[in-house]
Amino acid sequence: MNLFSYATLAGYEWQHPRLLLLLALVPLLPLLRWLLARRRRQVVVAFGPGGIRPDWRAGLRFLPTLVLSLSLALLVVAAARPQRPSEHLTQTGRGIDIVLAIDVSGSMEIEDLKPTRLEAAKRLAGRFVGGRAGDRLGLVAFAGQAYSLVPLTTDYDLLLSNLRSLRPGLIADEGTAIGTALGVAINRLRDSRAKSRVCVLLSDGESNAGSLDPQLAAQLAHAYGIRLYTIGLGEDGFVPYGRDSLTGKPRYVQTRLDETTMRQLAQAADGRFFRAADNAALKQVFGEIDRLEKSDIRTQRYRSVQDFYRSYLGWGLALWLLWLALKGTFMSNVLED
Questions:
Q1: What is the pLDDT along the chain (337 residues), one digit of tens a residue?
Q2: Model's pTM, two decimal places?
Q3: How many alpha carbons lie under 13 Å from residue 70 in its C-beta half-sphere?
Q4: How large is the greatest C-alpha to C-alpha distance in the chain, in angstroms?
Q5: Are 326 and 71 in contact (CB under 8 A)?
Q6: 95-294 is a CATH 2.30.40.10 domain
Q7: Where are the CATH 3.40.50.410 domain residues in the chain?
């Protein structure tokens, strides 16, 4: 490490940074010494007709002053105590493993949640992910089939990227395979050793596809110690869904959430059912789940400081001794000193 490079000096933290202001006075010392010398009574020395020829060695008389200035600058730097802190984080305890299972069927384009049911779910699920720390999260998307898009991971950027990519039509098979989605989530969670294993399932319809019965899937989740939170999205009845291509007026379609089944699934797996008919309710639901599922992770921060003033102090004292030695040589102007 180059002690005198700009990058090194700029990278320090200073215990007494105000002392560095004294560096501005160091260049003034040679000037002050020169002004005082001019005020002294000058000694006139007569030379022969030829005078004195210029000699480069005459400039060496400024070397002691330069050495003194460098010495003082280094001593000021040392007094300001340059340091490099380092922090270490240690985490103890266990996080939670959570799988988000999100419905991407065509009905998730309905606009009773703004801008659509799916977009609202993605946005608030993203905030939920951003609020977790130390937990492993996974992502399952389902329509007529279910697929694991992200395994359990602490790489939240990867999960958020896949979450943003969700769209209706991502899975070609039409329908809502809630049982299959729970089965895929259980496969991800069953071998987990986390203190708590959770599946959060978001859907806006009734299970009408897939080969695994939702009730059986909920019982499997309970058997593996997986808690299930189900969230029913949207309103029942006629709700806006796009616009008519000819008139431009909103179109309305009829939807129905099988709330009874969603509630039974949550109860079978020791969880809770939530109904989110609008954005505010969905935000409140995620906040409630975040409150219920807290990680038991304790973070300790250690801060250590490494001092570097000794190097600058050593160089400063060495130059000071060099200055004292030079004062006794021909380089010092004895007529001024």
A1: 578 888 888 888 898 989 988 888 888 877 777 677 666 655 555 555 555 555 556 566 678 888 888 898 999 999 999 998 887 766 555 678 999 999 998 888 888 788 888 898 898 889 888 888 778 899 999 999 999 999 999 899 999 999 999 998 888 888 889 999 999 999 999 888 888 889 999 988 778 888 899 999 999 999 999 999 998 887 777 666 666 666 767 776 667 777 888 899 999 998 888 888 778 888 888 888 888 777 665 656 677 888 888 999 999 899 888 888 887 775 565 444 4
A2: 0.60
A3: 15
A4: 120
A5: no
A6: no
A7: 95-294
